[in-house]
Specification:
The complex is a heterodimer of chains A (160) and B (129).
Chain A lengths: L6 E10 L5 E7 L4 E11 L7 E9 L4 E9 L31 E6 L4 E8 L7 E2 L2 E2 L3 E11 L12
Antiparallel strand pairs in A: 1-10, 2-7, 3-6, 3-10, 4-5, 4-7, 8-9
Chain B lengths: L6 E10 L5 E7 L6 E9 L2 H7 E7 L2 E9 L28 E8 L10 E10 L3
Antiparallel strand pairs in B: 1-7, 2-6, 3-7, 4-5, 4-6
Classes of the chains: A mainly beta (160), B mainly beta (129).
Chain lengths: 160, 129
């Protein structure tokens, strides 16, 4: 059997349907992973000024919050010089801009099968209802990057 | 194929002709490729790719990015230096059966009204001496 990739990504989508909604959720870790090495968050909201929401992630049962961050969205319409780079007041071609959506590097050992999360939306927009179902205002997408469990003969890796 | 730099750059293209469409394409990496080192993704309409796109990418039947992985997470704009535009995997991948597959999904977004567009996935490979 061929060796699996060292990194594993998961994608979790949270639909936000109501004004200033608060969402509790859980993410199930994939099998055979040793730790979370990166966290990234995006939204599907159109350009937005100010914070979109607040995301926290914690280890269940222990209440250890290992990640807490305001979620923001770009404030301008799409501009290929600026996004997916970072805003530069005097943009130049090949100026050394960085990618917008990168992972927050971390090192959180995976000891439980789940992690718990809480998202609070600050967006004062309502989606409404159609056919008895709520209309989505926007989505929050949470990316987790994992490192797989190493076999005994390979002790490289960042998880301790 | 670039012998001078020993990096092979290949690409596969998907065309999105209908709103909400899911399109799959694949190709085989060059037989001289010893390791696959990274990818890049572009479009003829970057705004649509940024707001509407997500894709699943597999290399040699191994999932590199799962379904629902937004294209904005893989895009690089003109403000990023050219040599920084390759997305690496944290390791160099063996080509295996050499098959690279992309399943691209278009999703509606108010900031990017739909009209047909194409998405190109670049794959960068290294030739060993």
């Amino acid at each position: 059997m061929s060796k699996p990739l060292n990194l594993k990504y998961t994608v979790t989508v949270l639909p936000v349907n109501r004004i200033k909604e608060k969402i509790r959720f859980q993410i199930r870790h994939p099998e055979n992973v040793s730790c979370i090495t990166g966290i990234a968050v995006t939204t599907s909201l159109k350009p937005w000024k100010g914070d979109v929401g607040l995301l926290t992630l914690s280890i269940p049962g222990k209440g250890d919050v290992f990640f807490s961050q305001e979620v923001k969205e770009v404030e301008t319409n799409y501009n290929e010089l600026i996004q997916p780079g970072i805003f530069n007041p005097t943009p130049k071609i090949y100026s050394g801009g960085k990618r917008l959506h990168t992972y927050f590097d971390t090192n959180v050992p995976v000891t439980e099968s789940l992690l718990e999360g809480f998202y609070e939306s600050f967006v004062p927009l309502a989606g409404g209802m159609t056919a008895g179902k709520p209309i989505e205002v926007y989505r929050v997408t949470i990316y987790l990057r994992y490192e797989r469990i190493k076999k005994e003969e390979d002790d490289s890796g960042i998880c301790t | 194929m670039s012998h001078r730099t020993k990096i092979i750059k290949e690409w596969v293209e998907v065309k999105v002709n209908a709103q909400g469409e899911k399109v799959k394409e694949s190709f085989s990496v060059d037989k001289h490729a010893a390791k696959i080192i990274g990818i890049a993704i572009t479009s003829d309409f970057d705004e649509r790719l940024y707001f509407r796109g997500s894709q699943k990418i597999t290399i040699s039947e191994k999932e590199v990015y799962p379904e629902g992985y937004e294209s904005k997470m893989l895009m690089t704009g003109l403000g990023v230096p050219v040599n920084d535009r390759i997305i690496t995997f944290g390791e160099e991948l063996s080509p295996g059966n050499r098959k690279v597959e992309i399943e691209y999904t278009d999703t509606n977004h108010a900031s990017a009204p739909f009209s047909p567009y194409r998405v190109r996935l670049y794959v960068f490979s290294r030739i060993d001496d």
